[in-house]
Design brief:
The protein has one helix and 19 strands. The protein is mainly beta. It has two domains: 135 residues; 154 residues. The strands form three sheets. The protein has an eight-stranded antiparallel beta barrel with strand order 1-2-3-4-5-6-7-8. Strand 4 and strand 5 form a beta hairpin. It is elongated, with a radius of gyration of 32 Å. About 4% of the residues have low confidence.
């Protein structure tokens, strides 16, 4: 009797623990991660043979569902399947070709076209696969290629328009923008009577192809007797390598040159530009707050050391613009 009661008690405890685990598991809220790009579609396409053009056009059923997820250990998920069909004399449909992806290795979306690469099979045989698709208002299309990877052989290469169904491409818009400016700041040096003038001109922008832009800065002595004596420092940045835009502030840098009395040398140029009038003049107690500009130059071999050159201040003339906007990658 005691043994039976003990068994019943243990069974009740086990069921209670299982119920708690079930409730606990159901209570876990897993965040839903949305993809930042995908290629999806189902339908039927008429495929022509690119290896033997004389072969007749074949109908092929396709199913595509590939998505890219940000900040994931498996950024590319999903796959695709192509089944080429043939109709016999008895009008019964038979499968003649099967292309199946096993692991997607790459996806590139450019405008309304996408290229997906994958490891998979061609009629059960290991193969490297490439799927190109177009999402076009004039008509969607696909191209499928299967080759022997390390082997120099092409098993399958066909393309054609979609006759039934639809293909959809989507890519999350990226935040792009630009900053530009022309103007001057006062540059004060210790022990000097009156400030020098720092004249600048720059343009930097973030595009789908990456950052680009340029800068020219000259510190001059306005009290010099001849124009030849006026330039004290000339800093040139032929190509912006990085650009960050945060609200009305822009920070960019790249590798350029600095020319002064000691000669010309390669340097790292960093600029901070602030647009204090993005929506009109900012007034502080009746005083308009001007835009600000700062430039620093560092040795590329010792970038964390004290700057070789630094100048900053509010604009005494000119204007700086910082703008951002969302665009869909091309």
């Amino acid at each position: 009797m005691k043994a039976a009661m003990l068994r019943a008690l243990l069974l009740a405890l086990a069921l209670g623990a299982l119920l708690c685990l079930s409730v606990s598991a159901q209570g876990v809220v897993r965040p839903v991660i949305a993809p930042d790009a995908f290629v999806r579609g189902t339908g039927v396409a008429a495929l022509a043979d690119n290896i033997v053009p004389e072969n007749p056009v074949k109908a092929a059923m396709f199913r595509i569902d590939v998505a890219r997820y940000p900040d994931s250990t498996v950024p590319l998920r999903g796959g695709f399947q192509i089944r080429e069909l043939a109709v016999t004399a008895a009008t019964s449909v038979q499968r003649t070709v099967m292309v199946v992806s096993r692991r997607v290795t790459g996806m590139t979306i450019t405008g309304n076209t996408a290229v997906i690469s994958a490891e998979g099979t061609f009629n059960g045989r290991p193969a490297c696969l490439t799927l190109e698709v177009g999402d076009d208002t004039a008509g969607d299309w696909i191209r499928v290629r299967a080759d022997g990877c390390m082997l120099d052989v092409i098993y399958y290469d066909k393309d054609g328009g979609v006759k039934q169904g639809d293909i959809r491409l989507w890519q999350k818009p990226v935040l792009a923008g630009f900053t530009k400016g022309v103007g001057s700041i006062n540059v004060t040096r210790p022990g000097q009577i009156g400030p020098n003038v720092g004249n600048f001109e720059f343009l930097a922008e973030n595009t789908t192809a990456g950052p680009r832009g340029r800068l020219l800065f000259r510190e001059i002595n306005p009290r010099a007797l001849t124009p030849v004596d006026r330039p004290l420092v000339t800093i040139q940045l032929p190509a912006v390598q990085e650009l960050a835009l945060v609200r009305n502030r822009a920070v960019f840098h790249g590798e350029g040159t600095m020319t002064n009395a000691t000669g010309i040398r390669r340097v790292i140029v960093s600029v901070v530009a602030v647009d204090n009038r993005p929506a009109g003049p900012i007034v502080n107690d009746g005083v308009i707050v001007p835009d600000t500009f700062a430039i620093s130059v560092n040795d590329p071999l010792m970038p964390s050391f004290v700057p070789l050159y630094y100048a900053s201040g509010p604009l005494t003339r000119g204007d700086i613009v910082v703008a951002q906007y969302a665009i869909t990658p091309l």
